[in-house]
Amino acid sequence: MKRILIFVVLTLTILVGFMLYTQVVKPTLDNRTVATVVPMKIEATDLKFEFTYPSGESAYTLIEPPVPPETSDGLAKIYIMMKNEDYQAFSSESDLKETPPTVTVFVLKEIKDPNNLDEDRQSRLMKWAESNPQYTSYSLRNSEPEEVSIDGVKALHYISSGNYESEVYLVSNRGNIYVFVGQYTEESDGGLVMLKDLINTVSFY
Hints:
single chain, alpha+beta, Protein Transport Mog1p, Chain A, seven-stranded antiparallel sheet, 5 helices, 33% strand, globular
């Protein structure tokens, strides 16, 4: 029951953000989907990082749902990347029963627990992941977290299961927590390949 609830919360987070986007932001951003596939760099100097994703009619559409100025969990930004064909179907068909698989990046301001200040950064990140399953799907993982490196910064990586399989990368760096999630139906899925390619483009400031 807890696994189902966590997956529902994560799905609703993405779905609500997407609906806000289609109602508020989409009308001014439709021209950002280009006809050919081109690398699109997102430079977020205020969030101290950048990444590149494939944009275009046969690639991905970027969705940036509005986020409240202040949130209790520190959420600062959401980037949702959806295959353009899925995006077109999802935004035009009201009878779709589930959100298509996405590649999503959450950025949150780190709220440090005063009880964990003596622990190293990776240990604090692990506890944060356990406490924030709506972003991390941590309790749904089917692999143990492994330490990897993204742009020279230590990160955690694991796989979780729900309606889709998800690869998750977590990074704590310079006061921010970055969550990279790629959903897919099988390992040859383009979404998994896209996530790994995106991870290789990440730079932290």
